[in-house]
Specification:
- The protein has six helices and no strands.
- Among the domains are: 27 residues, no CATH class; 91 residues.
- Helix 4 packs parallel to helix 6 and helix 5 runs antiparallel to helix 6.
- Helix content is 69%, strand content 0%.
- By secondary structure, it is mainly α.
């Protein structure tokens, strides 16, 4: 193949060793044009940059990769401690067990708090600027749509930990929007 086409003996240009010796000793000989003579390999691409890292940079990168892989392995093997313990208690007690009652109780508390905050917002609509009301309403509608989509997906896959976390996150976000809106109403009155 390609090896057969190579010459039997290779001749190294005489200037190559002078340039190498000069670089080793720290003295670089320049030719008449002021350029340093460099032996170019025929396969080397011209104009490519060489990227080099210091030892501390390489050590830091190795640490980052190590910690990230350890964290990913931990997540993969444990899958979230809280979610697995809830799943185990629902499985042990059946769908109507203590875990299901606890989730139902949390839903009731969430609904009560949201109702109270919505009443404060409704009563204070007159004191808020129109732009503020529009922003609040758009945010709440967007969150309501997201919550509805997640609840629909949960109906299809009720054991999905990811969907439960997404639902809780969107509910907390909605609660936060309502709390800030109620605080703005109370600050104006």
């Amino acid at each position: 193949m390609a090896v057969a086409s190579l010459p039997k003996q290779a001749q190294v240009p005489a200037t190559a060793w002078v340039g190498i010796a000069g670089r080793i000793s720290g003295v670089v000989r320049r030719d008449v044009t002021g350029e340093v003579p460099v032996l170019r390999l025929p396969t080397a691409a011209r104009g490519t940059r060489r990227i080099s890292f210091s030892v501390p940079q390489l050590a830091a990168a190795a640490l980052v990769v190590s910690f990230m892989s350890a964290g990913m392995a931990l997540l993969a093997t444990q899958g979230g401690r809280g979610a697995s313990s809830i799943r185990a208690s629902v499985t042990a007690e059946g769908p109507g067990g203590a875990a299901a009652r606890a989730v139902s109780l949390e839903d009731n508390r969430y609904a009560k708090v949201v109702d109270q905050l919505e009443q404060i917002l409704e009563a204070g609509r007159a004191v808020l600027a129109l732009e503020t009301l529009v922003t609040i309403e758009v945010s709440l509608l967007t969150l309501d749509d997201a919550i509805e989509e997640i609840e629909t997906a949960l109906a299809d896959d009720p054991n999905s930990d990811l969907l439960r976390r997404l639902l809780a996150n969107r509910q907390r976000t909605r609660l936060g929007v309502l709390q800030r809106a109620a605080a703005a109403v109370q600050a104006q009155t």
